[in-house]
Amino acid sequence: MPSPADDNQSNRKPRLNRRDLLQGRLWKLIRPSERPPLVMRYPKTRADVDASPPETSPPETPSVPPRSIGGIAIEPVRPTEFTDTAPPRSFPVFRPPGAVAEPQFLAGCTRCSDCADACPYDAIIKAPERMGAIAGTPTIDADANACLMCEDFPCISACEPGVLSHALPKTIGTAKITEHLCLAHHSTTCTVCSERCPTAGVIEVVDGKPTIDEAACTGCGVCRYVCPAPENAILLMPLFNRPSLP
């Protein structure tokens, strides 16, 4: 004779776990005794087999071109071809005063070092090999030696190819003050940049804080070279658009 515990166990409603719920298995909530019997239909004769609907495969997904948007074909992209004839890549660098436009400069510069030899302050150096197409061409690194903007510009006079010209502006870049790094902007008296600037009137001190007239700045880099701030407060930017010679 079944015990009351067995009766309670048989009458207990089946539980539905989270996986069954998410997969739509609500039929598990029905007690086995209440579930309708499964009707299995088997063909009995050859005629029944012939009358059965043919098995069908899932509809084929329309082919989509390798490059398409929503099944709409677009023009295929040709694979990138890498060749050795790619145009040389130029880096923004500081050229000596009077430098022509960069494409013309690279085409005409012979890497002779005459301009560097003529500089009395050793401010002109050759670009290192890691700089690719511009390697060996004359550059200025203000962190090593700033350009002092000589009155007669011997570097220009020494350039036989003519990529440095007296007829062109002598500006090589622009300097900016990074205020949060500048000592004078943190209640510390400092006017070194304005005192050492070789061009009069470019850096003025207003209320104890230096300001740069960017329109008059030549980008020589002296202010950066002498800046005593723990993290240099002078930001130099080379002149990107230089004029060309006919």
How would you briefly describe this protein structure?
It contains 8 helices and 8 strands; from the N terminus they run αααββααββαβαββαβ.
Provide the descriptors you would attach to this structure in a database record.
alpha+beta, iron, two-stranded antiparallel ribbon, 246 residues, two-stranded antiparallel sheet, 11% strand, 8 helices, 4Fe4S_Fe-S-bd, 8 strands, Alpha-Beta Plaits
Structure description:
Strand 6 and strand 7 (209-212) form a beta hairpin. The protein is 18% helix and 11% strand. By secondary structure, the chain is of the alpha+beta class. The strands form four sheets. The protein has a two-stranded antiparallel sheet. Among the domains are: 102-157, no CATH class; 173-238, Alpha-Beta Plaits. Mean pLDDT is 80; it is low at 38-44 and 68-75. The protein contains eight helices and eight strands; from the N terminus they run H-H-H-E-E-H-H-E-E-H-E-H-E-E-H-E. Keywords: Iron, Iron-sulfur, Metal-binding. Residues 55-65 have a biased composition (Pro residues).
Topology overview:
Elements: H1 4-11, H2 18-22, H3 46-51, E1 68-69, E2 72-73, H4 102-108, H5 114-118, E3 124-126, E4 138-140, H6 154-157, E5 173-177, H7 192-196, E6 203-206, E7 209-212, H8 222-226, E8 234-238
Antiparallel strand pairs: 1-2, 3-4, 5-8, 6-7
Q: Work out the strand percent.
A: 5-15%
CATH topology of the domain at 173-238: Alpha-Beta Plaits
Under CATH at level 1, the class of the domain at 173-238 stands as Alpha Beta
Helix content range: 10-25%
* Structural Rg: 41 Å
Q: Provide the spatial order of strands within the biggest beta sheet.
A: 1-2
Protein name: Quinol dehydrogenase periplasmic component
Keywords: Iron, Iron-sulfur, Metal-binding
GO molecular function: iron-sulfur cluster binding; metal ion binding
Biased composition (Pro residues): 55-65
